[in-house]
Specification:
globular, 5-stranded parallel sheet, binds adenosine-5'-diphosphate, binds guanosine-5'-monophosphate, alpha/beta, 8 helices, 206 residues
């Protein structure tokens, strides 16, 4: 196992993709293998879905608390999505990156654009479904949103996919295992870049 250099910072990994494409599912699969990655738990004003746990899936907060966080400049980025606020805490992210830990954000495209602008060194990955029909099937199959919310999410999905050209990588979530494998390969290759490994060559050369 190659050790990171003392000064090496963690990678900031931004993952986006339309609602229902399977981001949470693929991330859960990846985190089973890569327990060293810190998944950033976002703040949201959306109500928890059945089975979602406060502090694990999201930090569920009121609109007032979210607006206080915006005013206090505590968020790296935030966006409104289908009637709710979603945002990323600046402090938690920075602490992990400074300690050399990779941090994974699951955020929509507006937020991803803000992160890219503030942190150009971040790696950005867009997850697409095999087809729009399959996306609709997954949103319905998840059974967590009303038909009205599903239609709004599908409408938003088309807009979001138009922005995928701004990302560094595109992963197709055909099967969870395949998508998680692609994600893992991207992350491995990031750590093999010359700027991350040059200190090892310098150790040899002396
Ligand atoms: P997102 O986090 O992108 O909104 P989820 O991870 O909640 O999406 O997945 C939406 C639904 O699609 C869930 O019911 C999940 O089990 C299902 N799903 C995820 N990936 C796949 C896949 N590769 N094939 C079939 N169903 C999938
Ligand atoms: P959901 O309600 O399905 O959990 O998430 C809706 C959308 O919000 C998804 O596209 C998800 O990636 C995005 N999202 C989750 N957390 C954040 C966040 O902290 N910031 C932004 N900008 N989007 C987020």
């Amino acid at each position: 196992m190659i050790e990171p250099s003392q000064t090496e910072k963690g990678e900031l990994i931004v993952l986006s993709g339309p609602s229902g494409v399977g981001k949470s599912t693929v991330i859960a699969q990846l985190l089973k293998i890569r327990k060293d990655i810190h998944f950033s738990v976002s703040f949201t004003t959306r109500a928890p879905r059945p089975g979602e746990v406060d502090g694990v899936n999201y930090n569920f907060v009121s609109k007032e608390e979210f607006e206080r966080m915006i005013a206090a400049d505590e968020l790296l980025e935030y966006a409104q999505y289908v009637g709710n606020y979603y945002g990323t805490s600046m402090k938690v992210i920075r602490d992990h990156l400074d300690h050399g830990v990779d941090v994974l954000l699951d955020i929509e495209v507006q937020g991803a654009g803000k992160v890219r602008a503030k942190c150009p060194e971040a790696v950005s990955i867009f997850v697409i479904p095999p087809s729009l029909e399959e996306l609709s099937r997954r949103l319905h199959g998840r059974n967590t949103d009303s038909e009205d919310v599903i239609l709004r999410r599908l409408e938003r999905a088309r807009e979001e996919c138009r922005g995928c050209g701004d990302y560094d990588y595109i992963v197709v979530n055909d099967t969870v295992e395949h998508a998680a494998d692609e994600l893992r390969s991207i992350l491995i290759s990031r750590h093999c870049r010359t700027n991350k490994r040059i200190h090892l060559a310098e150790d040899i050369i002396g």
